[in-house]
Amino acid sequence: MEDRSEIVFFDVETTIPTRTGQGYALLEFGAILICPRKLVEQENYSTLVRPDDLSLISQLSVRCNGITGDAVTSAPTFADIADKVFDILHGRIWAGHNILKFDCPRIREAFAGINRPAPEPKGTIDTLALLTQRFGRRAGNMKMASLATYFGLGQQTHRSLDDVRMNFEVLKYCATVLFLESSLPEILTENSWVSPNTAIRSRTNGNAVLEGMGSSTDIPSSSVKIESLKSIAEDNIESDHPIFPLVSRNVEIPHLPETNSSRPDAFNLVQLSAEVRESIQLDDMEEEPGSADSRQSSASTATGGYIGCTDFLEPNNISISSVSVILAPFYRGTQKLQILYNNAELQVCSRSLKVRFGISTRFVDYAGRPRLSFVVEASSDLCQLLDAIDNLVQKLNEDTGSMSEWRPVVSRKPGFMNCPTIRLNLPTAVDANISRWVTEIYQKESSTTQKLMFNRFDVAELDSLITPGTLLDAYFSVDSYDYQQTAGIRLVAKKLVVHSS
Known about the structure:
Blueprint: E1 7-14, E2 26-34, E3 41-48, H1 59-65, H2 69-72, H3 78-89, E4 93-96, H4 99-113, E5 123-126, H5 127-134, H6 144-150, H7 160-183, H8 185-188, E6 198-204, E7 207-212, E8 224-225, H9 229-234, E9 252-253, H10 269-280, H11 292-295, E10 299-301, E11 323-329, E12 335-341, E13 344-345, E14 347-364, E15 370-377, H12 380-399, E16 405-407, E17 421-426, E18 428-431, E19 434-437, E20 440-445, E21 448-452, H13 459-465, E22 471-483, E23 486-499
Parallel strand pairs: 1-4, 4-5, 16-23, 17-23, 20-23
Antiparallel strand pairs: 1-2, 2-3, 6-7, 8-9, 10-21, 11-12, 12-13, 14-15, 14-22, 15-17, 18-19, 20-21, 22-23
Helix pairs in contact: 5-10
Cofactor: Mg(2+)
Domain Exonuclease: 6-180
Keywords: Exonuclease, Hydrolase, Magnesium, Metal-binding, Nuclease
């Protein structure tokens, strides 16, 4: 069997969309294969790519990466290099700066554009999320150019091969600094901007400081996805090699109970990988996976009281004075803002919401796969409730020292008949590499209500069900997030009842 243990750092350069609805076109692909034990470059590949429509290369695009239409006129199309790109990426650990939000989706779009299945990663290392969480803002913002300047590595060229090599060097420099700080923390970090024991960002001289992890190992009852030692052994990769602990993998193990162990290792990157994975994969932890039998059912009639409001309260029945926001233990000493109602999880039921925009796939998970959501119009009582919760959470979030940009949960845009809207998120889970919906979805026709069972993870099937103008009842929890310099609350759909027209 071919050894695919190398880590592939890759980067794409693209056109810049200049109008609504215009997508990205690949202009360049670059990658290096890294030995995970010796951290040396073993192989590299880069090529310019000619888009089908050269007019997409605008002046804005040229200013971004310097790639002109003339430069790619004689370059191969993506279809010409697809085999090589697939061979480099498929089955390996993917690494890069902001690859989860940008490069991974672009690769998937490129393969979809030529009607071919996209490569799949063995695991991912997004250095933007990783270094934001561990290294902090001591280098300013977390852009690659800022990190490179901080370490004296020169200017970023915004060309694929140069950028991946710079990315790899930045990661090694950051890891070295953190290793040294963890070796002599009382000396090297006494006056440092960032302590190696990190949890909460705070303001100091305009820079975000990570501080206060402490020794707590409180862990929530839900599960977190990290690599198991068995899988490491099966992949023939040693658990203590320099890079592997950074990788996010798709293996689920239960959380451990609270212990009174000594302070967690400040340079434990397995722990960090899990913390970052938590931020990315919150959708996957809402409920336990269902049985295979239930996924193969077609539809079943719901029993009476299938969706009673025992645990879900309508907005006008919720007293704001009984809503509290606490800073609760989260994972291995980290903390998270938790929203409670009378000291229990806040769960809301809102009926007859009109869908404004159908299923969106703009947000992605750790491997660049779509995380689904849709937008509905919000009633005045629901807006009033969510605005009040938003204010409570934002205040505590700022009090903890977060420097992230706050995004209101209710979206308001001026214009005639332009009602306020909210976004409902549809969590998914993966069972044995098979994705499935976690949200329970029902369809209501006159006096009959049926629970829908989906045989497979089909976005098109959901898209045909949740269309603009459709009315539905939503049962959702209210969660907080603070990730990659943005923060806010989000609404996680537990149950949906879709009204047939």
